[in-house]
Amino acid sequence: MISEIGHFALILGLGVALAQTILPIWGAQCGNLALMRIGTSAAQAQFVLILIAFIALTVAYVTSDFSLLNVFQNSHSAKPMLYKISGVWGNHEGSLLLWVLILALFGGAVAVFGRNLPPDLKANVLGVQGSISVAFLLFMIMTSNPFLRLDPAPFEGRGLNPILQDPALSFHPPFLYGGYVGFSIAFSFAVAALITGRIDPAWARWVRPWTLMAWMSLTIGIAMGSWWAYYELGWGGWWFWDPVENASFMPWLSGTALLHSALVMEKRDALKIWTILLAILTFSLSLMGTFLVRSGVLTSVHAFATDPERGLYILGILVIFSGGALALFASRAQVLRQGGIFAPMSREGALVLNNLLITTACAAVFIGTLYPLALEAVTGDKISVGPPFFNATFGPLMVPLLLAVPFGPFLAWKRGDILGVAQRLSVAAVVTALVVIAAYSISGRGPWMAPLGLGLGIWVIFGALSEIAFRVKMFRASWEEVFRRLRSLPRSAFGATFAHLGIGVMVLGVVGTTTWQNEKILEVKPGEIVNFSGYDLRFDGVAPAQGPNYREQIGMLIVTRGGEEITRLQPSKRLYDAPKTATTEAGIYAAWAGDLYVVLGDELKEGAYTIRFYFNPLVRLIWIGTLIMFFGGFLSLSDRRLRVGAPKRARVAQTAAAPAE
């Protein structure tokens, strides 16, 4: 009965989404305030209905209701409760329901918290958001219904892919979709702005908090996926430039450019056309990622579906919404004014450079991801575009970007003094030079570019700290004055500093682990001691163990340094019961200098095993840097100036102008 309620709620949600699409936009066109207000009520009702459907499916998973086809195909009664719940979105149908739930959540949030929005703009935003819901609800109900019944009901389910039964991956999709789907609000704001002609600094301030929320969610979602791949897949790396990884990375890059572009538009009434275009392209890249994951064009552990017909439907959604928005953009391009003028050497100019480099890097990832698919579709030839291509194209674009990042916050709006900025960054430059020299002296024979990479990370970190130090007059005023200025700084200033600082920390981790990673594959017998990267590891053999829904062979390694025991590593090989799948669990000893990473391989003769040993220097800084970036976004979002939307005087001016219309 609960599942039928969920199914009925989905159908009702589709009807409400249709009303949300048609009535508010119609009301905005004819100036009917009552019709415009229907969008607010419909957005809230739609969220409640989709939430009911999601709860109904969750209950079916928790209670192991195998009369539902979706539960039968993706769950098992012996699974731990965490993975029963995460199994809800660990498949195509359930993840699509989560997709629509988050879509409705953002629409409902605008309905509740967008009270300061002009009625016509809010009505159009909710109408466009509702149209996206209509498309995906139709897709779900017609081709991907999670509430289909089985008769007779099986006694047991097939189980969830064991690789997905992991805590990090349990929370990875909700955060990832929060970013993917969250950018739909920026898209809806952009289309609504094109419809109403309201493209001004107030619009940029309204759209920025929603874009920032989506960016934060996507940031932490990508980080969780990277962390899972690092310790679960057993290959010792954190990023492989997998096409599905790239599908989430491209909207993140475009969303980062959108945040910076919206800042210029808000502060200087400039880059209007570019900001609108980025809002459209960012969500279009999210839709493209959804297509790649669900169309069957890719074979990946991240992919959900292999049905080409479903892929064609999503491709149709992509063409309709992206093509329609771009067509509307082209039709209004002649009446769009670019706005404020600024010198190339200014804060606006630095942000434009930032945008150009980020979007060019995004284009390089786009080409490397889609070119093999396009070539195979046209000619039938199969080629592989892997890390060498992306490292050769993406990496060089990041060097000038990282060099320029510290300059931006120091430059004045409209016209800046580059020599004065260089003087203010002199301390950061000296520290960077010292780190590079020290790295060269320690690294010895190379690789020769690695110390320069570390220098880039240090440059970004100390550049961010220098900006705050300059604003509070550190070492130039009394400590009482410094602390007074520190307390008076807006949270958004700290947010930008932490975001840039996080990038620098992440760069240190990326450079350290990619250039100085040490790897060794050995045949080891019980009792043997392996000396590796300054550690002594004694292999004490393998012991069997039983988990809740798997059996495993656990290797025992005693790790010592200088004769003193440091830790014990237990890499293992697991065999899950349902479905019958083997997985690898790495043994990891985490330290600030780097991770000792051990993977148990196949059994050989006389009790020996193949064991892979890795030492990944500074690898933890990758995820620490990402968390710092997320925290920076949170600080910016908590700034009341960003949360309240348009300034009061703008609202008063609009109210006063209303009778004249």
What's the short version?
This protein has helices at residues 2-30, 33-62, 69-74, 81-86, 92-113, 119-143, 167-196, 201-232, 243-268, 272-294, 308-332, 347-379, 387-404, 407-410, 418-424, 426-443, 450-471, 479-488, 491-515, 620-638, 640-643, 648-657, and strands spanning 518-524, 529-532, 535-546, 550-561, 564-569, 572-576, 581-585, 587-590, 594-603, 609-617.
Structure description:
By secondary structure, the protein is of the alpha+beta class. Among the domains are: 1-160, Up-down Bundle (Four Helix Bundle (Hemerythrin (Met), subunit A)); 519-620, no CATH class. Helices cover 64% and strands 11% of the residues. The chain contains 22 helices and ten strands. The protein has helices at residues 2-30, 33-62, 69-74, 81-86, 92-113, 119-143, 167-196, 201-232, 243-268, 272-294, 308-332, 347-379, 387-404, 407-410, 418-424, 426-443, 450-471, 479-488, 491-515, 620-638, 640-643, 648-657; strands at residues 518-524, 529-532, 535-546, 550-561, 564-569, 572-576, 581-585, 587-590, 594-603, 609-617. Strands 2, 3, 4, 5, 6 and 7 form a six-stranded antiparallel sheet that branches. α1 (2-30) runs antiparallel to α2 (33-62) and α16 runs antiparallel to α17. The longest helix has 33 residues, at 347-379. The chain is globular, with a radius of gyration of 27 Å. It starts with a helix and ends with a helix.
